[in-house]
Specification:
There is one protein chain. With about 190 residues, the protein is an alpha/beta fold. It has one domain: 5'-nuclease (Rossmann fold, 3-Layer(aba) Sandwich). The chain is built from seven helices and ten strands. It is globular.
Length: about 190
Amino acid sequence: MFYKDERLALFIDGSNLYAAAKSLGFDIDYKLLRTEFMRRGKMLRAFYYTALLDNEEYSPIRPLVDWLNYNGFTMVTKTAKEYTDSQGRRKVKGNMDIELTVNAMELAPHVDHIVIFSGDGDFRPLIESLQRQGVRVSVVSTIRSQPPMIADELRRQADNFIELDGLREVVGRPAREESDVDDDYPVPHDN
């Protein structure tokens, strides 16, 4: 699926990849992920997209964002919108689709292969456009969760589908115990 001499870029939908890995019972080791894809081709960029709450003194995602920023990832963040749903539950909305799409379109003339870490079906038109520009597109997500984390139309459009569970041995580490995870922090999601 990969050629050693191809120019490669990674586009990671942070909340989508986090949810997919969590559904499979492991955490992503981003240092190993970066190393794995550097081995597969000439990686020009690794983008990571996430929305952040700016009104909290401490956010559990902040150490990850800082680490990625210092370790070869291009961070793309924006302020998440917080709201209360009709049942009175606190929700956070932080859709990064437009930012990811714009960056992919801008970088397309400079790469041979783009890897999108997301199962969001909204990216199908992006993949179609990238392919028309001569760029090969792989999508990393999972069909092994219940329900599957990848939209069928996205999987069909991609040149390659990479099962996240198949990468577990190379980029994964065991998930933390639930008592170690701050479940009070709402992970930004698309609505």
